[in-house]
Amino acid sequence: MAREIAYLDAIREALREEMRRDPQVFVLGEDVGAYGGAFGITKGLQEEFGEYRCLDMPISESCIIGVSVGASLRGFRPVAEMQFGDFITCGFDQIVNQAATLRYRYGGRVACPIVVRAPVGGNVAGGLYHSQNPESWFVHRPGLKVVAPSTAWDAKGLLKAAIRDNNPVIYLEHKYLYRRAKGPVPEGDEIVPIGQAAVRREGSDITLVTYGAMVMASLDAAERLSKEGVEVEVIDLRTLSPWDKGAVLASLEKTSRLVVVHEDVKTLGLGAEISATVMEERFEHLDAPVMRVTYPDSHCPFSAVLERENLPNADKIADALRTLAAY
Amino acid sequence: MAREIAYLDAIREALREEMRRDPQVFVLGEDVGAYGGAFGITKGLQEEFGEYRCLDMPISESCIIGVSVGASLRGFRPVAEMQFGDFITCGFDQIVNQAATLRYRYGGRVACPIVVRAPVGGNVAGGLYHSQNPESWFVHRPGLKVVAPSTAWDAKGLLKAAIRDNNPVIYLEHKYLYRRAKGPVPEGDEIVPIGQAAVRREGSDITLVTYGAMVMASLDAAERLSKEGVEVEVIDLRTLSPWDKGAVLASLEKTSRLVVVHEDVKTLGLGAEISATVMEERFEHLDAPVMRVTYPDSHCPFSAVLERENLPNADKIADALRTLAAY
Amino acid sequence: MASIKRFKFKLTTEQLLEMLYWLKLIRAFDERLSVLVRQGRVRSGVYSSIGQEAIIVGSCFGLEKDDYICPLHRDLGSFLMKGVSPGVMMAQMYAKATGLSKGRDSALHSGVPELGIFGNTSMLGANTPVAAGIALTFKLEQRRNVVLAYFGEGAANTGDVHEAMNVAAVHKLPVVFICENNIYAYSVPIEKSMAIEDVADRAEAYGFDGVSINGNDVLAVYQAAQGAIARARSGEGPTLIECKTYRWHGHSEHDPAFYRTDEELAMWKSRDPLTTFTTYLRHRQMLSDEILLEIDQRVVKEIDEAVAFAESSPDPDPSEAATDMLA
Amino acid sequence: MASIKRFKFKLTTEQLLEMLYWLKLIRAFDERLSVLVRQGRVRSGVYSSIGQEAIIVGSCFGLEKDDYICPLHRDLGSFLMKGVSPGVMMAQMYAKATGLSKGRDSALHSGVPELGIFGNTSMLGANTPVAAGIALTFKLEQRRNVVLAYFGEGAANTGDVHEAMNVAAVHKLPVVFICENNIYAYSVPIEKSMAIEDVADRAEAYGFDGVSINGNDVLAVYQAAQGAIARARSGEGPTLIECKTYRWHGHSEHDPAFYRTDEELAMWKSRDPLTTFTTYLRHRQMLSDEILLEIDQRVVKEIDEAVAFAESSPDPDPSEAATDMLA
Ligand SMILES: Cc1ncc(C[n+]2csc(CCOP(=O)(O)OP(=O)(O)O)c2C)c(N)n1
Ligand SMILES: Cc1ncc(C[n+]2csc(CCOP(=O)(O)OP(=O)(O)O)c2C)c(N)n1
Ligand SMILES: [Mg+2]
Ligand SMILES: [Mg+2]
Known about the structure:
The complex is a heterotetramer, with two copies of chain A (327 residues) and two copies of chain C (327 residues). Chain A is globular and about 60 Å long. By secondary structure, chain A is an alpha/beta fold. The mean pLDDT of chain A is 98. Chain A has eleven helices and 14 strands. Chain A has two domains: 2-186, Rossmann fold, CATH 3.40.50.970; 198-326, 3-Layer(aba) Sandwich (Rossmann fold). With 327 residues, chain C is of the alpha/beta class. Chain C contains ten helices and seven strands. In chain C, helix 2 packs parallel to helix 7 and helix 4 packs across helix 10 (289-312). The chains are: A alpha/beta (327), C alpha/beta (327). Chains in contact: A-B, A-C, A-D, B-C, B-D, C-D. The structure holds thiamine diphosphate (2 copies) and magnesium ion (2 copies). One magnesium ion is lined by residues 152-154, 182, 184-185 of chain D.
């Protein structure tokens, strides 16, 4: 049987393998050195690769990203760690202006192969500043790629792809999945290509598009609906920018019904773009309006009682699926 | 006849009137003092109100916003100027985390009445870092309001409303309109309420939703279509968050066809949210898919040749309207 | 100008005993939290100040009600000294409806304007621009109040701290910057985050005074703080006080702190601020065994009551999960 | 350690005359640009370095090809000295297809990796973290190259500059920070943006040396730069060189610069770096009238040719408006 490891260990494995493969790859961030990072992702890397390939940085998110851009200009492939994805706002300008526009303003003469790893998402007692889902900001900005693995397999495969990619890639790792998602991982040079969604469950009645920690809840809801006679096709986007329009539309052509599920807030969450695109390109195929099951337009409360209220879950998803099936 | 002034002067008038009315209102930013700001908006204010109510700040966008938040906690109503809206990324964390979450994390016990003025938009030979349209980032973030006037009237009325509002308001002033938009302005205590769209042109065939500099181009396109026998209702959102769903849906119920036009890029531009909302709430009313006419997913090039290619204009809008009419 | 390290002060026996009470209360609060975390009763991140209490007690002692504090994550004690009851603070840590943020967040991410307490986001350093803003309002209103802005030696490296110190200097704002230099930022020792010995030296770069003091000596802290506060009140602008100290626990209660040696910890435990101050009081014959017992009993009682209050408090109402987004 | 102000250097007559050529070429380029702006032939923002040329010539002179520069917006001359032809730079200002960014942006927002030139965004200070990143790669590769990072005294107050200087200090990175202190940041005089006299004093706050020099004396700049570069090459880390100078024109060619006096301008014109250096060469009998004429003629010819090249160059192809977004 295949080796099964946790999502969190899969991330480390990707880092280690890429650092072994390519001496231009290095890691930088706060506490990533001897300590191994707040979540232990970079444990052992400094030992193996030395201080400078697994570099502790001062609390200076903007500089961490800026340093990465500089290093990329000289052929390096830095992987910057934000201690929590929430702090990415402190390095925002260096991402959306410095990194995202580099190739364009250089007239296409350079690439900017940096990866920014950001632990995101809630359901981990994180509260307002340790639970956020920042994907929309970056999906909205041209010049960036954004990925969000939901399995150990993808965590490893997408990180390897991100490191090899010649563009700035925002790699969103969901904290809820760190130890809860376990499974086999690709070996050797196998990667998970950026831009390709995965069908996690086939179904002919409704297409459900999701990513990250919501994949689990969505599959759960799909199982319930199956018992009610409704077969839901669950698509895990894996890459949020560019998202796999082909896969979504292909499934929709089969089902004619679509729901998008994400943990990010509703307004201008990725669901908005998918819904608008489907509207533009497959209006005639729709038997029902595209629905969205998302976080409300709210911050992420700390109290378990409050957070439970806000988080999408299998119940809420199942309800939406029923509404859609009955439409 | 009513007094007519330029958009840019209307902004200044709003500042001056509010500063006279309420001693807690003050202005801060780079070069806003004796110089009167890069665009002359704050000219004369330091002379009238003194150094500290029209305060020159060092080049420190993050601190400018943070100072505003601090002042708001003590009952002041600061109006911060970003020299160009593009630089708002340098103060991003203080807006989306500090200001936007303040009330929520204080359990509702405080308000955060700050205004961040940001000159935005292209078609002014600005290039990559003097042409951006940052609205989506803020519309996506709960806890903020976002306004974008298209006329001198609204420039004045919305700024007065923003200053009186108890929330952080991102006030997007379009540079292209500074001198090109001229008209009457509200007097005295009259304001333009945040959250209310304006119907700029009535029509029964297609609803066109837009804002900012695209209102002019949209009206132009609507005139052309009128000659072709298609009557387009043009809705100027004026407020982008919260956007006036009621007005949009009411118009749609009449026309059954909708196009959104904005200068911001397509992916996760405001059009996505409007389209998705219409899908959710008025699917049955739609005779055609909601369309979007937007900037492509690109940065804002400097060359006039390139910028022209990217900017939406009356031609492109008219084309979309024709497609929609023929659907 | 004499160094603020030699600022003349007088404290009555009563006041000195009150200081002891605060030292003990804060220690006891943190110790109890530590237990509650291990028991799984508090889910919040807990950043203990054990070993550092002299900084808060020495600097907050004698503050006026309208003076403002902008604490760092380790400064729970400052909330108590500024007037929040232990029960409310405990409820805040429990994320109960009776806590400062009504369960929206835990720890110090909420404030009390009436008591002059600012509650920061998690973003390190982001409190300092806000502090400058509050101080600016004191200047605008010609009040003699001050703002105390706290940050760690790690946070000293954020852009925000730089921008805020500079702005405070330019406008001679009444801010006392208090750097709690406990040698580590999470796992990163100071020599890996800055190439200088004394953070205090940074003050000169902005044009104001910086002193480095023994942060484990409550009277040394009081003396320097009073000196700096006196300066600030009389319009002489900001001061930076660097308090050398050490945290006995890990970064948070979940951190085993393998990155430091037992020897180092023992050395710093020998510098326990409570012991030092008790010895002082004994030398001055101010502290009888009865008084000591009385204080200890009072402290235990207050903490017990705080826990009882928190535990018996209701959870927030789920209906408040997404309210208070806007005023 | 002797001050780098007294660093020993030797320059041949040929080299000194080359310096004069560069001073004159850069002056002529900026003067021509100024005319072209007034004629409406160049639409780009032009930030003239007239009066400040000694800084770029003195610091870039003798750089190795692999050494990297990270210029500020006023440093067009550094592109020329690093090997970009005047024609290409002029085409860049004209936003022609033959410019560095193929018309995507103008001015210095594009770079040339093969020549060791970084092109920053507009965001002031944002080039310094990138400089640190480039320098980090030199350290990783154990190369003896250096990075020169330029910024104005206004930009010195951005968070990025703080974070970058600190990181460079911690890791002893081979960066020379060059502050062009021309007294004004746009309209804001230095006393309103910082409370210190010499930006050089900030270096100490990070643990490296800072010197303040006469930035209008090309040999003084060369001497200090060579000293700092020698240090950097031998692994001794960063240095900050503050060059006191003045810009003769407004902030940009559109700025009438009412905020300063004629007296001040006249005083600084009397310190013209070209006059000073010409006098030096005359004193050393190195500059005959023929050589002077020859240089002047060469400069005029090169500028004429550059303009001719730019004007005859094609506009970018509209089809490239939204390409090169991703590699
Ligand atoms: C901007 C930002 N980056 C990273 C973090 C994560 N983080 C929380 S506390 C901490 C260490 C803080 O060290 P220091 O400022 O010295 O304060 P101390 O905890 O030692 O009191 C880090 C890295 C954060 N909260 N904010
Ligand atoms: C982050 C940021 N804020 C504001 C601006 C607008 N701006 C452009 S140049 C300038 C003044 C720069 O002054 P200084 O750094 O001293 O350089 P100088 O122009 O004097 O050479 C300002 C405010 C900007 N480009 N970037
Ligand atoms: Mg610390
Ligand atoms: Mg300057």
